[in-house]
Design goal:
Shape: globular
Number of strands: 9
Distance between the termini: 26 Å
Helix content: 40-55%
Structural class: alpha/beta
Strand order of the largest sheet: 1-4-5-6-7-8-9
Strand content: 5-15%
Number of helices: 16
Bound molecules: coproporphyrinogen III
């Protein structure tokens, strides 16, 4: 592999940054970079439901590549969803307009957990492997491909609630009231996710990201005792696949020390965490990704550039920063805002004019 920081491909820049090796500047990509902020996504989406697009390798690869045709990004994130594994475990999963994800029937009892099935990713999620292969065929070796899954807690919370939730009442009722059933569900999810991530790597994913989008709803003591063990089992298994593993916990500022102890290669910060504090706590143990507030991109481009500069300065020059937003791109973000951030990150790379 190319060792000269001045002539890196996007994929090399990404993988080197994830391993805290010197680069010419941070690689850049965005969570939810494919999707509803792009008019070309709406065109594809008009041909089917969200889950139909996800299960169609040709269309999923097409949507994955769309943002890379428009923007100079270093990585593609495969177009799929964290709810694909619950569907493969036997739940009915739909993304309903104006409601969001709906899963049926919700998991509430030990019997419900027992009814979930183990699945074979090569068979039951063959479409995902094929989408990764098609994406590699289009992008070649110059871009990193990111595979992903939901963290056990976030996946469990969708399975238990049956939809997005503000207070996670059913999930917490099970966690605090029927802990052994809750932990059994978490274990089954990890058992399913390990081969699922392995399948993504077999098909060409260069890096894996684990999304704990709702982990921040728990206090640190509960997170360390009841959530961290299964998450650690997933991270250790994923790292065994010999690709860098990124952990993203939305609203996880109060959990940062616990997350560092889990040993991911990269921690993805949301915008509420001060990158300088994260750097200090990390003490060189992992790379950091993030963490501009997505709503900054609603401001005029000159303001966007200033915020991008402040974000880059906060992470500093130490190797091991992957530029990203603090959460996914939201559908209302203007293309000019996204463009302005990317241009700013690239302009600050060494050797860039
Ligand atoms: O570009 C990418 O990042 C890759 C694709 C991706 C999607 N979802 C596509 C998607 C990824 C990585 C995800 C992860 C995901 N899915 C998360 C974790 C990330 C985060 O934001 O915290 C979560 C919580 C989900 C569950 C989920 N799926 C939600 C909340 C929604 C949106 C529902 C809505 O109506 O707002 C989905 C559907 C979904 N996943 C869409 C996209 C582009 C929109 C579907 C559509 O076209 O209607």
């Amino acid at each position: 592999m190319n060792e000269d920081p001045a002539t890196l491909t996007g994929r090399e820049r990404f993988l080197r940054a994830a391993r805290r090796q010197p680069v010419d500047g941070p690689p850049v990509w965005f969570m939810r970079q494919a999707g509803r902020h792009l008019p070309e996504y709406h065109e594809v989406r008009s041909r089917g439901t969200f889950m139909e697009i996800v299960r169609n390798p040709e269309l999923a690869a097409e949507v994955t590549c769309q943002p890379l045709r428009r923007y100079d990004l270093d990585a593609a994130v495969i177009f799929s969803d964290i709810l694909v594994p619950p569907a493969a475990m036997g739940m009915e999963v739909e993304i309903v307009e104006k409601v969001g994800p709906v899963l049926n029937p919700p998991i509430r009892t030990r019997d419900d957990v027992e009814r979930l099935r183990a699945f074979d990713p090569e068979v039951d999620t063959a479409f995902l492997g094929e989408a990764i292969k098609r994406t590699r065929a289009e992008l070649g070796d110059e871009k990193a491909i990111i595979g992903f899954c939901g963290a056990p807690f976030t996946t469990a919370s969708y399975m238990i609630e049956g939809r997005s939730s503000r207070n996670f009442e059913h999930t917490k009722k099970m966690l605090y009231g029927d802990r052994s059933t809750f932990l059994e569900l978490m274990d089954r999810i990890v058992d399913a996710l390990v081969p699922y991530l392995g399948w993504q790597v077999d098909c060409g994913a260069d890096v894996l990201q684990i999304f704990d989008s709702w982990g921040g709803s728990l206090d640190a003591v509960t997170y360390r005792r009841d959530i961290a063990p299964s998450l650690e089992r997933l991270i250790v298994a994923a790292r065994g696949l010999e690709v860098p593993v990124t952990l993203y916990v939305n609203g996880g500022d109060h959990l940062l020390e616990i997350l560092l102890d889990l040993g991911p290669d990269v921690i993805s910060l949301d915008w509420r965490t001060d990158p300088r504090r994260a750097r200090e706590l990390a003490r060189g143990r992992c790379a950091l990704q993030g963490n501009l507030d997505p709503c900054v991109l609603l401001a005029p481009p000159e303001e966007v550039r200033k915020h991008a500069d402040a974000c880059l300065d906060a992470f500093g020059d130490e190797p091991g920063h992957i530029f990203n937003l603090g959460s996914g791109i939201i559908p209302s973000l203007p293309i000019e805002g996204v463009q302005a951030v990317i241009e700013r990150v690239i302009a600050r790379r060494t050797g860039a004019s």
